[in-house]
Design goal:
single chain, mainly beta, four-stranded antiparallel beta sheet
Length: about 425
């Protein structure tokens, strides 16, 4: 699981050749950040044999895609995997044991490597989890016919007898969202400072958004949703907040908070400022990072990054929000969005949006002036590694990231 965090400069010529008119990269500090290192967060931790496949002699992909605390003061860390399990560990460097908090492998559709964007995709603990024991998951239903493919958002509750076990029988389905294809499901669930649940949904899949979902406000696909899981509107297992931007419009779904989304792979609120950040996976040439605003149109499939997309795409328009950063596929392919660093082990990263790339295994720290939406620095933290799968935070604000093979890492000052 170990790799060496080596820092190398990409070279000014390579970066400059990818500059666009919209982002003046000459004003952005792109020097490698050599004062921060990547370390194994739990060097003594082992995944259970039945999860790795050791017990059967058939190696299985671990694919940990959520790392989070529960916000309940217990200090525990929860790690969810795409095949359908949530694991729980003590959040201490010498942790060895990994318990199973919830196993729903029998309820979801996960077929890797051929169709590797389904399965268990999201987890969020209720802000009042300590009091109500509620948490929410996002997964692909166990469909037999592709016409029945759906994204499921459900509420579960912790066991009454064991705080390290969830009650698998407590599932209450909150939303069922039909999906036309197996890819571009998004899947991030995150509670905002307002107490509402935000959901990242991809454009429905295939490629290039063939159904035009990104720009169609009358569908939930290609959107970020905002829903109230503590109340219910007639006919729904949730309520639509009255101050959502498209409430009352006949041509729009009231759940929609922002649109023009292709396939966000991880979004997170800055725990200090409340700003919502997202890493948006690109199509042909560009990966991007967005700051999400109420009612914002993020351009897909008219724009890709800060660039016109395809023959029917659009030049910059006042009604289309540009990303705060993008990068070309010459530098990486498939962004893994993270969170704004607010920890203590690497103060050099304070205020930086941490993100990585699945293809290159690189990790970056991006600083943006939120008032002007201009990037001030984009600094390489990890030059070489294995595929970066997800980022997450513990309850103290420390940032972690995982690799596809199951490694869990964090940042420290050199």
């Amino acid at each position: 699981m170990k790799f060496v965090a080596t820092i190398v400069c990409l070279g000014a010529m390579g970066v400059a050749s990818l500059a666009s008119a919209e982002i003046d990269r000459s004003k952005v500090d792109q020097s490698p950040l050599k004062s921060v290192k990547v370390v194994e967060a739990f060097p003594n931790l082992f995944w259970p044999d039945d999860v790795t496949g050791v017990d059967e002699g058939k190696p299985k992909e671990l694919r940990p895609l959520v790392i989070t605390g529960a916000g309940d003061g217990s200090g525990r860390l929860f790690i969810a995997t795409q095949p359908g399990r949530i694991h729980v560990i003590e959040n201490k460097p010498d942790a060895e044991e990994m318990g199973t908090f919830l196993d729903i492998t029998d309820r979801l559709h996960y077929k890797a490597p051929a169709e590797n964007e389904e399965g268990f995709l999201g987890l969020a603990f209720h802000p009042k989890f300590k009091e109500n024991g509620e948490f929410f998951v996002y997964y692909t239903n166990d469909y037999k016919d592709e016409k029945d493919r759906k994204s499921i958002i459900s509420r579960f509750r912790v066991s009454k007898d064991d705080p390290n076990k969830a009650d698998p029988a407590s599932e209450e389905i909150i939303m069922e969202i039909p999906q036309p294809y197996w890819n571009h499901n998004g899947g991030t669930l995150v509670f905002g400072p307002d107490g509402y649940l935000y959901v990242g949904l991809g454009d429905g899949g295939s490629g290039r958004d063939p159904h035009g979902n990104g720009q169609n406000l009358n569908t939930l696909l290609g959107k970020i949703l905002r829903i109230d899981v503590d109340n219910k509107d007639p006919g729904l297992n949730y309520a639509i907040p009255k101050d959502n931007p498209f409430v009352g419009r006949k041509d729009a779904r009231g759940e929609n908070w922002a649109y023009g989304i292709r396939n966000i792979w991880r979004m997170a609120f800055d725990r200090k400022t409340g700003t919502l950040w997202a890493g948006e996976v690109g199509q042909d040439l560009w990966e991007e990072i967005d700051i999400i605003e109420k009612g914002g149109n993020y351009g897909w499939n008219l724009r890709e990054g800060t660039h016109k997309f395809g023959d029917k795409g659009s030049d910059p328009r006042a009604d289309l929000i540009e990303p705060v950063w993008d990068y070309h596929h010459d530098l990486g392919k498939s962004i893994t969005g993270g969170n704004v660093y607010r920890g203590k082990s690497a103060p050099e990263l304070e205020g930086a949006f941490m993100y990585g790339d699945l293809a290159t295994g690189q990790v970056y720290a991006l600083w943006v002036d939120e008032a002007t939406k201009q990037a001030t620095a984009n600094r390489l933290v990890l030059e070489k590694g294995t595929p970066i799968f997800t980022f997450g935070e513990d309850d103290n604000g420390e940032t972690y990231f995982s690799t596809q093979e199951g490694g869990i890492y964090k940042f420290e000052s050199q």
